[in-house]
Amino acid sequence: MPVTDPIADMLTRVRNAAAAGHDTVDVPASRLKMDLARLLRDEGFIQKVELTDTEKPTATIKITLKYGPRRQPVFRGIRRASKPGRRMYVGWREIPRVQGGMGVAFLTTARGVITDRQARTDKVGGELLCTVW
Questions:
Q1: Domain count, the chain
Q2: Tell me, what's the pLDDT at 55?
Q3: Which residue positions in the chain have pLDDT lower than 70?
Q4: Could you point out which of 7, 8, 60, 107 has its C-alpha 20 to 30 Å from the C-alpha of 88?
Q5: What one-character-per-residue DSSP string does 31-53 give?
Q6: Residues 129, 113 contacting (CB under 8 angstroms)
Q7: Is the pTM of the predicted complex or chain greater than 0.85?
Q8: What is the dihedral of CA 96, 98, 99, 100, to 10 degrees?
Q9: Do 57 and 95 belong to one domain?
Q10: Together in a domain, 19 and 40
């Protein structure tokens, strides 16, 4: 059965792998998921992102998770905001502050996938993909 929400599937795989203490997790590849994974890496929530099996039609993204000193995940939570049944579009003034600024919201805009800080700086809104704290 095909996955109806690939972004939610990716976030759930990362969340479950971190809760189970795995070092890496594999996710089916797409451009949007790769951009989101790179931003998660740049924001310090995961350690490493690499694209594997690029020759095959089933390319995968290998995500290396990041843990704290007592092997607890660096992020406390990941939540999908916009869903296939209910899309959430926000203007740059309505972008939510995640955990009082301690978390990050990720948006997909005409300029690609960007963080909430970048969207406010560029004064651009878009679809609110997810929040991580």
A1: 2
A2: 79
A3: 1
A4: 60
A5: HHHHHHHHHHHHTTSEEEEEEE-
A6: yes
A7: yes
A8: -50
A9: no
A10: yes
